[in-house]
Write a structure and sequence with these properties.
This protein has 212 residues and is an all-alpha fold. The chain is 77% helix and 0% strand. It contains nine helices and no strands. It is globular, with a radius of gyration of 17 Å.
Length: 212
């Protein structure tokens, strides 16, 4: 379990994220968001035997276009699409591995996955030590970001232990809507019509998945 988490985290954070930052998020984020939902749901249904109800299936169906719209995805191909597909595979493996942990395992699967991921990425970080030198403020921000990511995995782990994996994955995958909502509410950012439709769809999907 820890090895799967380490490998998936290394793929996402060590390979795809740096390339995505250079390419921009316009292709990587929506492709990753949509594909990881599809992969996780298919594995949950075909491999693990999940059987979502009709309402939950409707929520899953609404989630896919909603994620694409929220991330402001546009049709295209190329390097960004390939990185998005690799990222989605890494996240899907991470979700599926955590979903197999029983209640008796506590939070150890998340802790083991984080430690193993650090060990996997450490050799590459050592080779680029000069580029990793950051001001204290940035280091503190990185710590908070890492803690937030770990908290998100803990909450997903608890959710996956209490409901179908396919439903838990889809609900967890709706997180791209949160930055858009926060930017709209706190920073008064303007959103596109496509994103507004995606936010509406994300809200509807959340209600359907909760009821289903």
């Amino acid at each position: 379990m820890g090895a799967l988490l380490a490998l998936s985290s290394a793929v996402v954070y060590g390979i795809v994220v740096p390339q995505a930052l250079g390419l921009g998020e316009s292709v990587v984020v929506p492709v990753s968001a949509v594909t990881r939902v599809a992969l996780s749901v298919l594995c949950g249904v075909l491999v693990l035997g999940d059987r979502p109800g009709a309402v939950a299936w409707l929520g899953i169906a609404v989630t896919v276009p909603a994620l694409w719209c929220v991330a402001d995805g546009r049709a295209g191909a190329g390097k960004g699409t390939a990185d998005g597909l690799v990222a989605s595979l890494g996240v899907a493996v991470q979700y599926l591995a955590l979903g197999q942990a029983g209640p008796g395992s506590g939070l150890w699967p998340v802790a083991a996955g984080r430690v193993a991921a650090v060990l996997v990425l450490l050799p590459d970080a050592a080779r680029h030590a000069r580029r990793l030198t950051l001001p204290l403020v940035r280091c503190v921000q990185a710590v908070f970001i890492g803690a937030g990511a770990a908290l998100g995995l803990v909450l997903y782990l608890l959710a996956a232990q209490r409901q179908l994996l396919a439903v838990a994955v889809v609900l967890a995958s709706l997180y791209p809507a949160l930055p858009v909502v926060l930017g709209l509410a706190l920073l008064h950012e303007r959103i596109s019509r496509r994103q507004a439709v995606g936010l509406l769809g994300a809200g509807i999907a959340t209600v359907l998945l909760t009821l289903g």
